[in-house]
Design goal:
Blueprint lengths: L2 H13 L17 H11 L6 H12 L7 E5 L5 H9 L4 E6 L2 H14 L4 E5 L13 E7 L8 H14 E12 L5 H9 L7 H12 L4 H11 L5 E4 L6 E5 L8 H12 L3 H16 L8
Parallel strand pairs: 1-2, 1-4, 2-3, 4-5
Antiparallel strand pairs: 5-7, 6-7
Helix pairs in contact: 2-8, 3-4, 3-11, 6-9, 7-8
């Protein structure tokens, strides 16, 4: 992020007007074919979300171990899920999503890649009836919790995560944090408007407006997940909030080499994005050895 932009954001967030209220998304379940297509395109290998998924892949890889059974909550078109599953072939992954359109895209993507360690369940992520108590080794979710309608549903989701996890299980849950200023929200939403579909830009805007506050995450973690994970937020401004377990996996130099190679292949603008993410979370104490 350019320094001038950072200065503006700090001014808007730290010295600006009273915080904007959270706005629930117009569509809590993304089933519109055009919106699904725009979201999917933005998240694929050359899309604007590529550096975000790479960053999260590194952190997810630190909380899962060989042979684990892993759940991806609100997996969407399985971009993140497929990336992680490719790097961890001994693990069994289940993607959970409520959107039939998204699951259709997800199943096709996994089939195209020839992955045999992934399956899917259509379900509300706050009601994981398909999974028994203490039956899962790790749970993760990337940039999806804002789809939940309210804090009650957020807390219920975290409670379900705690229920299905085995003792000592791994957690990585990351999403946007609620920003104070509408100017900051608009800046991030339209930052790459010239590189992405208008529908994706609007969805990004609605997602930022629907983000839960850091205090909401703190309360939900305290009620259900404090024994599994710690909460982190991006430096100075809580644009991103993450709940991450202590590293469970042994350091894998071969995996690091693969992830660093992917990072080095990103275009310059995406390299800057992932550097910002790494730095911002590292300043708050959440680091990865894999990037």
């Amino acid at each position: 992020m350019p320094s001038v932009a950072m200065a503006k954001i700090l001014f808007w967030e730290l010295l600006g007007a009273k915080s904007q209220p959270r706005k629930t998304e117009p569509d809590l379940v993304m089933d519109d074919p055009d919106k699904v297509a725009a979201y999917t395109k933005a998240g694929r290998v050359d899309g604007v979300m590529a550096p975000v998924y790479l960053h999260h892949c590194a952190h997810i890889s630190e909380v899962i171990c060989p042979g684990d059974r892993v759940i991806d909550l609100a997996c969407g078109p399985a971009t993140q899920l497929a990336m992680v599953a490719q790097f961890h072939p001994s693990c069994q992954f289940t993607g959970v999503d409520l959107s039939e359109q998204m699951l259709g895209r997800a199943e096709a993507h996994v089939a195209d890649l020839g992955l045999v360690n992934v399956d899917f369940v259509r379900s509300d992520i706050s009601k994981l009836q398909a999974f028994e108590d203490n039956s899962v080794d790790a749970v993760y979710s990337t940039v999806a919790l804002h789809h939940l309608p309210d804090v009650v549903a957020l807390k219920r989701t975290f409670s379900e995560v705690a229920r299905v996890l085995k003792p000592g299980g791994g957690v990585y849950l990351v999403d946007f944090g609620h920003l104070k200023s509408q100017q900051t929200i608009d800046y991030f939403a339209y930052q790459y408007a010239d590189r992405q579909a208008e529908l994706f830009t609007l969805d990004y805007l609605y997602s930022l407006e629907a983000a839960f506050g850091k205090n909401d995450f703190e309360s939900a973690v305290a009620e259900s997940l404090s024994e599994y994970a710690k909460l982190y937020s991006s430096f100075l401004v809580p644009y991103n909030v993450a709940i991450k377990s202590e590293r469970r996996a042994e350091f894998d130099p071969e995996l690091k080499q693969k992830l660093v190679k992917l990072r080095s292949a990103l275009p310059a603008c995406h390299k800057r994005d992932i550097s910002d993410l790494v730095f911002s979370f590292a300043m708050s104490g959440m680091r990865t050895k894999l990037l």
